[in-house]
């Protein structure tokens, strides 16, 4: 994709140009597949959703106005495809909405996910790129081990930043049940991240 040319004072920036459709799979396929996998946790379904995204993009490429990057445009289409996929699924099953002790851990997620994702901040040197990739590999593995209802709730609320009302409608649960799902998802994610990411980082530090 060509660079957007610099503009002189008072001129309007040139719109971003959508690449040729023959390059879409190579340029955006991996990004879209990872995005879909994080949300559906099924490689075959993720591939189908990406294919549907490209087909929809072909039909609507005339609507691309160049106000955002092509990647952002493709992800926006994929989001709708994922929502359509989940609308066709049965409502997630959920535990009884009692806010009692979690069977694994109670109240351990006493920090924000954003804080724990701090190693994934903008890399300051090339070595951080590998660290970032390692973290997301471990995070996806921990996330995929969650029960389906916990994983879907966590991704929609924490990763996608979905509004409570919207997520409740999509998952067909009450706000109380959603809070239970989120609580238990975090309770299970923490020990996995502590063991496989934070624990590993601590071991490496001790070895140095």
Could you walk me through the main structural features you see in this protein, from its secondary elements to its overall organization?
- The chain has 208 residues and is mostly helical.
- It has two domains: 21-87, Rna Polymerase Sigma Factor, Chain: A (Orthogonal Bundle), CATH 1.10.1740; 113-207, Winged helix-like DNA-binding domain superfamily/Winged helix DNA-binding domain (Arc Repressor Mutant, subunit A), CATH 1.10.10.10.
- The protein has helices at residues 24-40, 43-60, 70-87, 113-116, 126-144, 148-159, 164-171, 175-207.
- The longest helix is centred in the last third of the chain and has 33 residues, at 175-207.
- It starts with 23 loop residues before the first helix and ends with a helix.
- The model is unreliable at 1-7, 94-124 and 202-208 (pLDDT under 50).
Summarize the structure.
The protein is an all-alpha fold and 208 residues long. 62% of the residues lie in helices and 0% in strands.
